């Protein structure tokens, strides 16, 4: 797909519901008693995967696009499937459902696509084993085999800052007999699981680095409304910031502070982003964002900031390449454990755009100049939705445009991405 340069982006948009909350709501709804209703669901391959996996486990789901109804099977009511559970490209589904399955009687095999099979899953296997489940990975990756049953509570210090690992342990903690389960996280990661727990009446507390959940007898059915995904808004925010004369309104975005690190970093670089009409929707902070173009200066992203913009670091690299001076990211080794090794894929993408990036062990450096990138090359998405979106925005802000190989991978999180982008692009 060829993406031509743009003059500016203008208009008002809304983006699909938060992917991770959509997935969490389906998984929790699957073990609730009765029918749960999810509104503002973000339809995409990764969220549909959550639906197909719980269906394989015997749960009835009515998939009405943005409204999804889940008829829960009860806390211990999931059925052993005949076929392996195909988690596709969705790390959140594989890792979170593992926490639930660890507490179900039966034998479960979780598979995924090539990317998901290569990703590190020992990180969830290890704590779930300590809780009493039998869990086997395949050379550390998928397929993952789980034989669930009785679980005991643990206190678990996260070896990597990962909301997926935290969530897997907390979900298993709901099913653990005899006391609370505690996850210790030195650097806070996204707390969508904890907020959803609170919404439905599960007792979860946070004190300093300790996140603690009490086991439950049953989960009540619930209704939840999901706002727009900040990660889906992020490419538009970066495009509006970098293209002179842009003015873009993004309505109804989830602005959970553990997700919006890119806003903090862009503002430090001189971006012009107004956050207004703040409200709370189903226990999550939501706002409208107004973005105008601005000239940026370079910045350093510190290790402690990384979890709040981990999925936006590819876009940060693009913004940095048009910011005056040298920007740097450190403490982001986790980028190597994503859908692709994003230190590698961001480096090749930016170089194809004419950017000057030097990869490092746990991050990268970018030499920025406040002019359009040259472009003209080809960005290979390598099956990674975030790299495809990086390429698209890179094409808009370049002089010669860009070809994206594998542009269709945006369907993983945002099937309407290119249509929505077209609708605001001025040429
Ligand atoms: C996610 C957590 C992050 C993030 C991923 C979604 C979640 O992964 O990169 O896209 O929904 O909990 P880690 O928890 O592995 O860092």
Write a brief caption for the model:
With 427 residues, this protein is α/β, with parallel strands linked by helices.
Task: Describe the protein.
Helix 8 runs parallel beside helix 10 (313-321). The longest helix has 13 residues, at 230-242. The chain has a 5-stranded mixed sheet. Strands 4-5-3-14 form a 4-stranded mixed sheet, covered by helices on one side. The chain has helices at residues 19-30, 45-56, 91-101, 114-118, 122-130, 163-174, 192-199, 230-242, 261-268, 313-321, 342-353, 385-396, 417-424; strands at 2-3, 8-13, 33-39, 60-64, 67-73, 85-86, 106-111, 134-138, 141-148, 155-157, 181-184, 204-207, 210-213, 223-225, 247-254, 272-281, 284-292, 300-301, 325-329, 356-360, 363-368, 378-380, 402-405, 425-426. It has 13 helices and 24 strands. It is an alpha/beta fold. The structure holds shikimate-3-phosphate. Shikimate-3-phosphate binds at residues 20, 92, 162-164, 167, 189-190, 310-311, 334.
Keywords:
427 residues; alpha/beta; five-stranded mixed beta sheet; four-stranded mixed beta sheet; 13 helices; binds shikimate-3-phosphate
